[in-house]
Amino acid sequence: MGRTVVTILLMTLTVFASDMNVYERNCVECHKKLPVSLDKFFFNYLLKYSSERRVKQALRNYLKHPRKKASLATEELVARYGLMPKTTLSDKELKEAIDIYWEKYKVFGKIE
Fold it and tell me: Which of 5-9, 73-77, 78-82 has the lowest mean pLDDT?
């Protein structure tokens, strides 16, 4: 009986996880534990780097090689939560996650 429940639970979790994209599974899941939302980080990147190409490049570089100097998080946030760990995503998954992130929060073409 117990084994059946565990098997059904695992199957349900697998189906649920497969419905989520790489951005939701990896970025949203971790960042929802932080007091600063992903949209705030996005706008900080946009203010600093200005263009789609530069924002995506900065995100990719930071996620692959997180350093305090490159972080846009506040000193207090870094002191409390630390730097994020180096990504375990493949280059393809990382590109996909950053592309989804960009599309979700970009302001270009949305302001009239």
Answer: 5-9
Tell me the per-residue pLDDT of 82-112, one tens digit each, with 9 for 90 and over. 998 999 999 999 999 999 999 999 977 665 5
8 Å CB contact between 93 and 27: no
Cα–Cα distance between 53 and 57 in angstroms, integer? 6
Those residues with Cβ within 8 angstroms of residue 42's Cβ, 6 or more apart along the chain or in another chain: 101, 105
Tokens of 45: 């990147």
DSSP string, 11-66: HHHHHHHHHS-HHIIIIIHHHTTSSS-HHHHHHHHHHHH-SHHHHHHHHHHHHHS-
Average pLDDT, the chain: 86
Q: Could you tell me which residues come within 8 angstroms of residue 44 by beta carbon, excluding any fewer than 6 positions away?
A: 72
- Tens-place pLDDT, residues 49-66: 999 999 999 999 999 999
Count CB atoms within 10 A of the CB of residue 41.
20
